[in-house]
Amino acid sequence: MLRARLATVVVRPLRTTPCIMPIPPQLLEILVCPQSNAPLEYHAGPPEVLLCRASKLVYPIRDGIPIMLIDEATPLNESDYPPSD
Length: 85
Hints:
Largest sheet: 5 strands, antiparallel
Number of helices: 1
Oligomer: single chain
Structural class: mainly beta
Strand content: 15-25%
C-alpha cells in the first residue's frame, strides 16, 4: 500500500530589506521625461523617485529601476519635493 507523505514547504524572501541602489550619475544625464523631454531630478526618498518639474510628474524607482512610463507617474506635489535652489 502506498502512503502519501505531506511535506511542509517554507518559503522565505531572498531579502528582508529593500535593495536601494542609487541611480548612476551617467544614467541621470541621459534620462529625460518621456512627456516633456525635460531633465529629471533624483530624490533618494523614501520613496526613491525621479521627478520632472516641467511636466509636474513623479516617476517611481522600483528595485533600482526607473519606471519611465507616463501611466505609472504620479502628479508632483511641490510640498513633498521642494526645489533645491
